[in-house]
Amino acid sequence: MTTRQGLRARKKQQTREQISDRATELFLARGFDQVTIADVAAAADVAKMTVTNYFPRKEDLVLDIGETHVDQLAAIVRERAPGRSASAALRHACLTAIAAQDQLIGFSGKAFARMIADSPALLARGRELHDARQSALADALAAETGATPEDITPRIAAAQIAGVWRVLCDEITRRTLGGESNTAIAAALTRDAVIAFDALESALGTYAVR
User: What is the pTM assigned to this prediction?
Assistant: First the structure.
């Protein structure tokens, strides 16, 4: 039974990846707004309903790491080491992601960045994901510090920290579209991240220390 469930799970993951890969190929070739769900289904050799079962929104075919993106900052806070503040943990994770040229922080390549920049629908979905990530971080900070619903401190802290990540993501996109290499962008963003988190240190350096 366990083996059968494992095979079923792998099959579902393969189907999801197949749909996502074919969709990305079509979007990059034609532009997001020019491709329909029916086009994606035909390219992936599945039914249209299968596409929508895996990806309820067309935008999710592009931003298919949305759930991981939303929980990213909150997870860093929940998993931080003893003695480390939330800000310090997020600073370390940010610099690590930049050094690794991680897709989650924005290293997606010029063609992908251009596709998103040219689509109002994808830009709007990106803003929704950023907002959801900030809310998830605020919830995690509230849980970690035992804050009451009336205490706005977790929300203020989350707005500041998530805002830094958002500005850095936008800067990666700007530089990518400008034709800079990932290596050059990572070097510039490392400097910018240090500046940004240094600015937060006086306000949040001792906040939410585990």
Answer: 0.90
